[in-house]
């Protein structure tokens, strides 16, 4: 009997430790606070969202806007902006230039229903090929366009968020 009680106590302790680790990880990786864009994605050796998401920009000669296109691997998505739930990390654009990051004046498109329901809400996401139009502040020298994303798989695995620098030429 004492042996069974010890096994139950050991199993309960192990479950409590795993629950604590899961809670810690969710608080670390589901925070809505953004890391500085100058942080190199994946520099700590962990796989992060930059493994499955990249971005490119295009300038339209006849318009004052630029567009950012998300390139997302098959089987993955990122949260729309605004995010469907307070604790989910929305996709955001920022501009680095003149020494400090600035929020981009972006027109975030509506997300697509992912088929995932959390807390009774249908989760809206961006998929591969999503285009986000935005404006640059006037007079900004050599701006870098950075998109902050958190990639999640269709199996429900979410990676740590990452800041991805958009590629593309701007004249």
Q: Descriptors for this entry?
A:
171 residues, alpha+beta, 1 helix, 36% strand, globular
How does this model look, in words?
This protein has 171 residues and is an alpha+beta fold. The chain is 16% helix and 36% strand. The strands form three sheets. The protein has a four-stranded antiparallel β-sheet, with no helix packed on it. Strand 4 and strand 5 form a beta hairpin. The longest helix has 28 residues.
Spatial sequence of strands, sheet with the most strands:
1-2-9-6
How many helices? The count is 1
Q: Report the major sheet.
A: 4 strands, antiparallel
SSE class: alpha+beta
Mean pLDDT: 76
Helix content: 10-25%
Coarse morphology:
globular
Explain the layout of strands and helices:
Elements: H1 2-29, E1 53-59, E2 66-72, E3 76-79, E4 92-97, E5 100-103, E6 105-106, E7 112-118, E8 121-126, E9 131-135, E10 144-149, E11 151-153, E12 162-165
Antiparallel strand pairs: 1-2, 2-9, 3-8, 3-11, 4-5, 4-10, 6-9, 7-8, 10-12
Summarize the structure.
The chain has 171 residues and is α+β, with helices and mostly antiparallel strands. The protein has one helix spanning 2-29, and strands spanning 53-59, 66-72, 76-79, 92-97, 100-103, 105-106, 112-118, 121-126, 131-135, 144-149, 151-153, 162-165.
